[in-house]
Write a structure and sequence with these properties.
149 residues, alpha+beta, 3 helices
Protein backbone atom coordinates (compact mmCIF):
# COMPACT_ATOMS: atom_id res chain seq x y z
CA UNK A 1 0.00 0.00 0.00
CA UNK A 2 1.36 3.35 -0.96
CA UNK A 3 1.97 6.29 1.33
CA UNK A 4 -1.15 8.49 1.43
CA UNK A 5 -3.60 5.65 0.76
CA UNK A 6 -6.86 5.86 2.69
CA UNK A 7 -7.05 2.35 4.17
CA UNK A 8 -10.06 2.28 6.50
CA UNK A 9 -12.75 4.46 7.97
CA UNK A 10 -13.20 4.43 11.74
CA UNK A 11 -16.95 4.19 11.77
CA UNK A 12 -19.63 3.35 14.28
CA UNK A 13 -22.28 4.89 16.46
CA UNK A 14 -21.65 8.53 17.43
CA UNK A 15 -22.34 9.21 21.08
CA UNK A 16 -21.39 11.79 23.66
CA UNK A 17 -18.18 11.28 25.62
CA UNK A 18 -20.30 10.98 28.77
CA UNK A 19 -22.37 8.18 27.20
CA UNK A 20 -19.15 6.43 26.21
CA UNK A 21 -17.82 6.72 29.77
CA UNK A 22 -21.04 5.19 31.12
CA UNK A 23 -21.16 2.49 28.46
CA UNK A 24 -17.61 1.32 29.13
CA UNK A 25 -17.39 1.95 32.88
CA UNK A 26 -15.38 -0.87 34.45
CA UNK A 27 -14.42 -2.46 31.16
CA UNK A 28 -10.74 -3.01 30.45
CA UNK A 29 -10.90 -1.66 26.88
CA UNK A 30 -12.96 0.56 24.61
CA UNK A 31 -13.11 1.33 20.93
CA UNK A 32 -14.05 4.98 21.39
CA UNK A 33 -12.51 7.54 19.06
CA UNK A 34 -12.93 11.22 19.93
CA UNK A 35 -13.86 13.53 17.07
CA UNK A 36 -13.94 17.31 16.83
CA UNK A 37 -13.15 18.76 20.23
CA UNK A 38 -13.69 15.37 21.89
CA UNK A 39 -17.26 15.94 23.08
CA UNK A 40 -18.49 13.33 20.60
CA UNK A 41 -16.92 9.90 20.19
CA UNK A 42 -17.31 7.12 17.66
CA UNK A 43 -18.08 3.78 19.28
CA UNK A 44 -16.24 1.85 16.61
CA UNK A 45 -16.73 -1.83 16.07
CA UNK A 46 -15.72 -2.09 12.41
CA UNK A 47 -12.45 -3.22 10.82
CA UNK A 48 -10.61 -0.16 12.12
CA UNK A 49 -10.90 -1.45 15.69
CA UNK A 50 -8.28 -4.06 14.79
CA UNK A 51 -5.61 -1.46 14.00
CA UNK A 52 -3.25 -1.50 16.97
CA UNK A 53 -1.28 1.26 18.63
CA UNK A 54 2.41 1.91 17.99
CA UNK A 55 4.65 4.77 19.06
CA UNK A 56 6.30 4.40 15.64
CA UNK A 57 3.27 3.76 13.41
CA UNK A 58 2.87 3.23 9.69
CA UNK A 59 -0.54 4.98 9.61
CA UNK A 60 -2.23 8.03 11.05
CA UNK A 61 -5.80 9.11 11.52
CA UNK A 62 -7.30 12.11 9.81
CA UNK A 63 -10.70 13.65 10.40
CA UNK A 64 -12.20 14.80 7.12
CA UNK A 65 -15.69 16.30 7.05
CA UNK A 66 -16.57 14.66 10.37
CA UNK A 67 -15.36 11.22 9.26
CA UNK A 68 -12.21 9.53 10.55
CA UNK A 69 -9.89 7.72 8.16
CA UNK A 70 -6.79 5.65 8.73
CA UNK A 71 -4.19 6.66 6.16
CA UNK A 72 -0.78 5.18 5.35
CA UNK A 73 2.04 7.58 6.28
CA UNK A 74 4.64 5.47 4.46
CA UNK A 75 4.63 2.60 1.99
CA UNK A 76 3.42 -0.56 3.73
CA UNK A 77 4.50 -4.04 2.67
CA UNK A 78 2.06 -6.93 2.23
CA UNK A 79 1.56 -8.73 5.54
CA UNK A 80 2.83 -5.80 7.64
CA UNK A 81 0.63 -4.95 10.62
CA UNK A 82 -1.26 -1.65 10.35
CA UNK A 83 -0.69 0.65 13.33
CA UNK A 84 -1.33 4.23 14.36
CA UNK A 85 -0.44 6.23 17.46
CA UNK A 86 -3.58 6.36 19.64
CA UNK A 87 -2.50 9.60 21.39
CA UNK A 88 -5.02 9.01 24.19
CA UNK A 89 -6.03 12.28 25.79
CA UNK A 90 -8.11 11.44 28.81
CA UNK A 91 -8.69 8.70 31.32
CA UNK A 92 -7.59 7.73 34.77
CA UNK A 93 -6.32 4.26 33.97
CA UNK A 94 -2.83 3.36 32.92
CA UNK A 95 -2.54 2.62 29.24
CA UNK A 96 0.81 0.88 28.94
CA UNK A 97 2.32 0.46 25.51
CA UNK A 98 4.06 -2.74 24.48
CA UNK A 99 4.77 -1.81 20.86
CA UNK A 100 8.49 -2.46 21.24
CA UNK A 101 9.54 0.32 18.87
CA UNK A 102 12.82 2.14 19.44
CA UNK A 103 10.79 5.30 20.14
CA UNK A 104 8.29 3.65 22.52
CA UNK A 105 7.20 6.09 25.24
CA UNK A 106 5.73 3.28 27.36
CA UNK A 107 2.17 4.60 27.17
CA UNK A 108 -0.60 5.02 24.63
CA UNK A 109 -1.29 8.50 26.06
CA UNK A 110 -0.10 11.49 24.06
CA UNK A 111 3.14 13.16 25.19
CA UNK A 112 1.11 16.20 26.31
CA UNK A 113 -1.25 14.05 28.37
CA UNK A 114 1.70 12.20 29.93
CA UNK A 115 3.17 15.54 30.95
CA UNK A 116 -0.15 16.54 32.58
CA UNK A 117 -0.37 13.16 34.36
CA UNK A 118 3.18 13.53 35.71
CA UNK A 119 2.36 17.02 36.98
CA UNK A 120 -0.83 15.76 38.69
CA UNK A 121 1.06 12.82 40.22
CA UNK A 122 3.84 15.11 41.47
CA UNK A 123 1.26 17.43 43.04
CA UNK A 124 -0.43 14.48 44.78
CA UNK A 125 2.91 13.21 46.08
CA UNK A 126 3.77 16.66 47.41
CA UNK A 127 0.40 16.87 49.19
CA UNK A 128 0.93 13.41 50.70
CA UNK A 129 4.41 14.37 51.95
CA UNK A 130 3.02 17.56 53.51
CA UNK A 131 0.19 15.63 55.18
CA UNK A 132 2.62 13.03 56.52
CA UNK A 133 4.90 15.77 57.85
CA UNK A 134 1.98 17.49 59.60
CA UNK A 135 0.86 14.16 61.01
CA UNK A 136 4.25 13.39 62.58
CA UNK A 137 4.50 16.91 64.02
CA UNK A 138 1.10 16.66 65.69
CA UNK A 139 1.77 13.28 67.35
CA UNK A 140 2.66 13.59 71.04
CA UNK A 141 6.04 12.18 72.04
CA UNK A 142 4.52 10.63 75.13
CA UNK A 143 5.05 11.47 78.77
CA UNK A 144 8.53 11.80 80.27
CA UNK A 145 7.83 8.72 82.35
CA UNK A 146 7.00 6.74 79.20
CA UNK A 147 10.18 8.00 77.53
CA UNK A 148 12.34 6.79 80.50
CA UNK A 149 11.07 3.21 80.30
Amino acid sequence: MRKGTRLLEYDGERITKEEGDLRYDGRPFTYLFGIGKGDIVIDGHGMAMFVNHSCQPNCETDEIDGRVYIIAIRNIKAGEELTYDYWLYDGDDDAPCYCGSKKCRGSMYSPGELKKKRARDAKKQKQLRKAAKRSTKSKPNGSKAAQRR
